[in-house]
Design brief:
With 57 residues, the protein is mainly alpha-helical. Helix content is 23%, strand content 0%. It has one domain (1-57). The longest helix has 9 residues, at 31-39. It starts with 20 loop residues before the first helix and ends in an 18-residue tail after the last helix.
Length: 57
């Protein structure tokens, strides 16, 4: 749960120090379906927001 009481699903993506945005371009297709499968049908309308929380520059 976050500070507003909302449920939070954390998805980790491992990156190396030389990872660029081009490495991820188009690579998350199907992720929404996988998350929906993991959460179940009662969460069908939930859309996951993917945002980096740590990056290696």
């Amino acid at each position: 749960m976050d500070e507003d009481g909302e449920e939070v699903l954390l998805i980790r993506t491992a990156m190396t120090k030389d990872t660029t945005e081009n490495d991820f371009s188009g690579r998350f297709s199907g992720l929404t379906g996988r998350v929906r499968d993991a959460l179940g049908e009662d969460r069908r309308g939930v859309f996951p927001v993917i945002r980096p929380i740590e990056a290696h520059a």
